[in-house]
Amino acid sequence: MSTKITRNILIFLLFFLAIGAIGGGGVLIVSPSGEMIGLPIAILKSSPFNSFLIPGIILLVVLGLLPFVVGFGLLKRPASRLAEQFNFFRDMHWAWTYSIYVSIALIIWLQTEMFFIQRVSWLHNFYIGLALAIVFLALTPKVRRLYAKEKRTEK
What we know:
mainly alpha; 0% strand
């Protein structure tokens, strides 16, 4: 598979995640009772929340807006001093690093959700697979080379 195809699949998966989380988070913000999408408020009984408002905001921002920005960053490679402040892989473009962060955030979100609702659905497994696919695609040598910062030679 070519580098461009691998990169495009990675970007597609990030946008796929973003669209779903923006939609889901938006619905939970508009309908914090969960009624609009058929989520019973009773599933929150073991959680620290009494409505879906806060989970909806987290979903919208962390798993919706962030992956959208990361996907755009992978596509256009803009510089960002703010994003670079949290880039643990200084030799890589910030968007590449943040694709890993998004995957970690998704896995934490899913594990926390499963802990509180005391259930695992096929959707949880699907999104765990999505998180792993994002990490694996980002870690391919071709994609790593594509987003590696140029090494400057000292004279």
